[in-house]
Structures are given as C-alpha cells and as structure tokens.
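TL;DR need structure tokens for one chain.
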Amino acid sequence: MVGALLCASLSACSSDTTIHDVEEHHDDIPMQFGQAAVDVPLTRAAATRAEGQGSKTLAQGFLVSCFKGSSKLTVMDRYEVKYETDPWENESKWGYVGKKADGFWQDQVQRYWDQSAFPYQFYAISPCPAHGNIKNFELSKDQLVIPEPFYYQTCNNETRDDVKEPYYVAAASYSTADRVALPFRHIMSKVRFGIYSSNTQLASSNFNLSNVKVKVVSDNFVIAAKGYTASTADIFNGTFTTPTKASTDADKLLLQTDKAHTKDLSTATDKDHAYFAGSDGSDNDKGLLQIPQKGVKLMISFDINSTPYSDIPIVVKNGDSSFDWAPNNIYTYYINISDLSPLTIEFSAQLSPWEDVEGANIDTNLEK
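>> reply
TL;DR here they are.
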C-alpha cells in the first residue's frame, strides 16, 4: 500500500475535544499512512483501489480527520494530505506538514502516536476538495458531510454521460501504533447489461441486435442528489441528501441504441462473450454510475433482425423483479436470448465488489 509519512504530535488539550497544534513527542512514533515512501513513479495504490484508479485519484490529495481515545479528542481536523515526488531522492510520499504559505489550506503540524490514548479513528475523503470549499465539508468525530452533487449516468448509442463519482471515502480504527491503511471505497453503485444467446444454432444464423432500450419502470427513481451525509459509525452507507427523482420517461431511460448501432450477436454465445452496450464488460469498464437505492424495476426492449420485442420485464430466475443497488458494488444483468419462436429470454444477475482484486473479481450470484 502506498501512503505518506504523516508525523504528528499529540499534545495537551486546548479544550475537552481538541489537541494543541504544537509538537509533543509522546513516544516518538510518527503516524504513517501505508508506506513512508515508495519508489518513483508511484503505480496503482493497492490500499485505494477505487475503480483501479487509486493513485491517479489520490494524486489529487485526500482530506483526513483523526480522533483519539474513548472521548475522541481531535488530533487532525480535516488535514490536507498531498502527494509529493522527490526526483533527487527518487521517492514519492504523502506529506501534510506545512503552512498556508507552503500551499496547504491551513497550517498543519506533525502528529505522533500517544500510546495511552488508543483507540484512534481515521476518516477520509478523496480527492481533497478545493481549498475554498473544504470548510463546507464535515469530517467530525460523529459525522461525514459531502456538500457536493452526485449524478446518475446513462448511455446513448455507445456514448455515456460525462459523469464521474466525485468522492471516495475511507475509515480505519487502530488500537496499536502501526502504519495506517485507508482503504477508500465507493459510495455509488454501477450497473451494466450483457446480451448474448446460448442457442448456437440461432446465433450462427443472421442474428442482428438493434434498438436496445433499458429503462426503469419503478417509481421514485433517484437520478441525482445535492450531497451525502453519513454517521462515522458507518460512513459507507449514508444518505444522499435532497434527492432528485425521475420525472419523465426520458429520465428513466438508462441505455439505448438505434438502428445505426446494430450488433451482430453471432459470437456472443455466453456470458464471457456477451455484448455490453456502452461498456466492454471488462474489469476496467464497469458500466453506468447510479445513486444507491432500493426497489428498482427494469424493462428491456430490442429488435432482432428488425423484429421488435418490447417492454420485457427483467425478472431473474428466483423471481426477483425488484433490485436493491448498494454502494461499492457492480450489478451485472445478463440477458440470454435463447429462442425467438417463441421469444425465450433467461435473465440472470451477478453482484461484484467494485474494486480491483488480485487475480480476479470475486462474484456473488444474486440468485443464491
């Protein structure tokens, strides 16, 4: 894991909840996030595998708060942590000690572990917000508040909306002095749709797919939110504040292609070779961003060889037709068109943790 040499002093309290911003070297054990330094150039951050872009995202820095003891005295209050490269020493590290004159959003001093004050709690968001906005963010002992908007994502003719997940979050608790790992996680969800035919005779003939549409048919579908709030007891499962719900059919259309984007499904004979509209289905291209929510119902329409098949409910094998999209997960819906006379479709769904896993993704079938 990559991290930073974060040195900090834990000194006498200015109040019941805040540590003085001066050095007091308790046991002289500096706090370190991951490694003290890594060789240049820094590659993907193993501790922050957010969509396989850990180091890329965290290169923008992150914001962290730290609290000690059962009363949660404040050790770090929204400390800005920067990614720094020293070409002369041929190393990279995370650093936070400095002043406004050094380019930090506030004056920040070194911190050290206090062996008499465990446990320590750490809460963080990445990337670090713009300096002018940090005061609007809350990373307190009780609550996380992100006052910036989140949006869902749709796809039209292989082109996805230019929407990105604005922030990742992390939490860690330590009862001994150790290198602190901050495993950042997503607070949004992703969905994707793979279409194939297990009927090899059908697939070997003229089998052209076009005019694909996947739409939400449930009420109260959330497409945006003005922010995110969570208790520090579980910062990964908070509430998206002031949600915007879909008000038109167009709002509920997640995915669509037209006749000009016809796909030959003759080679799409199983899940491994399925056609993912708007996504290649690989681990690096994981579908459409969505606001986590419950009770989502979906329908699909498409044309096969110019014959339309419309408004088919997506119902998986166990009978589920209503789906809950949780944060930090990818939901993959497979549509197996196994026959056309009569139309026979087998739907299945898989849930994958939205993270890079050494070797392979770990899948859990939703139908079990």
